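User: Structure please.
Assistant: Input sequence and predicted structure:
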Amino acid sequence: MIFDQHTMQRVLFFIFIVFPLLLFSQQKTFVLIDKETQKQYVKKDSLSAVKFLDSLVEKNYYFAKILSVTKENSKTSIWFDKGKNYNQAFVKVTPEVSKEFSIPTDFLTKNLDSLKQVFHQNRVDKGFSFSRIKTKYLGLKNDIPWVELSVYQHQQRKIDGFVVKGYDKVPKRFIKNLEKEFNQKIYGNKNLLSLQKALQSHPFVALERPPQTLFTKDSTDIYLFLRKKKSNSFDGVLGFGNDKSEKFTINGTLDVNFRNLFNGFEAISLFWQRNPDSGQNFDLKVDVPYVLGSNVGINLQTNIYKQDSTYANFKFRPSVYYHLSNRQKLGVRGNLETSTVTQTSFTEGKDYNKTGIGLWYDFTEPTEIELFRHRTRILAEASYMSVFYQADDQTASQKYYFLSAERNLHLTGNHYINLRGESAFLQSQLAFTTNELLRLGGWNSLRGFNESSLLGNFYYYGTAEYRYLIGNQAFFDIFGQYGQMDNKNLKTQTQLYSVGLGFHFFLPIGLMSFQISNGNPVGNPIKFSDTKIHWGILAKF
């Protein structure tokens, strides 16, 4: 049989246009109409219509009834009356539910919906993600519905593993640590929120979207959609103030951090600082957190401090540590230090060599607020050293202790307070030389004093800083500091204070900081000439 073009077009028109319409016209539809609200609910078959009517009982409409049913061609219209909503009810539960929730087996509730939600949430929190609470109408008691609540729960779900999507070059040990922390824990809101919080505030990775879950018959896998964070940073600070001779000087600090360049969460840090008294400090740190895919890390620190043409100190501090968790490290650190006096008139200093070993601990809790560096930070160290003074041909033992703690607290609304404390103690059988004393003062410690201008063998200070956030782009702060510096050689104990205010805000190039501070020994009046101004910028790339 041969079709001409016109006939072929008519056949195609019937196949693609008319035939589907004829099929659709033969489908039956059920329209349920609420008498009270006139709202219509369209269902595709009789089974769906019956399920809808049954669901009214679940919503506490125990006396819902059908008023009329009309048929017109393939359309069936069902008029229904929900009746009164009974959220107050006498409830009957099984002895097992009664024991678990410490409730009677038969009692009155004024909010049935809320009670059912409590039962359901309890099941979900215990890993029964597909549990259902079934309501069965038993009759009336004193004109109040009497219902039976039954808990239907499927198998308990536990976290079985993680699947990384997006940025999948994260260290394998990082994922293994997540599995160690979360695997076989109950799949519930508590553990999911804990996982999400840990990843949202991680320094190297971020969640593109909330974790998603794949349920199979035998497993529960969580999909993590990660992206690589901009974690490299440049931190530059300029300081303005007077030196010891009341001469106006400019000093500065540069801190450059290269992090996660090779997708191993490694870090290389370069720090340089110049103080108003012609001292220079250079620091190089290299950190490799997961050596050979293990939880063992290596940290190497090299420090050079040069005080004009007077003396120079060199330190090398190699360290091996273990990840107690994603936030905690415990390590063993070696200490090699040498100092050379280059100016013969500097009689307070001596050439010396030090060797030692110590323990250290680091706890860091990241912050969800980008304006802050972290929420909590704790550093602690204890070291034992042996020092040899070359000119005196004398050896002595020394002990070094260090503790630093910082916490950002949310008061209310946009109001925060930053609390920080730090202390260090250098103990020896002999008198200390000036070139081995601890140095304090400046932008990262007592801000109202020049960088590294305070010398002693013991110090402590505390900072309380009020912060007011302006959206997510800026914050204003007012701070006060109090501390003490002891110098065993001079037999002095000096109490110190510092006050100031600052403003920090985001620009396209990074976080800009401006701060004014003034510090003095306790009892000395505040002098305008002692005012210090710091201006800095922290940029991530």
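Residues 126 and 186 are 6 Å apart (CA to CA).
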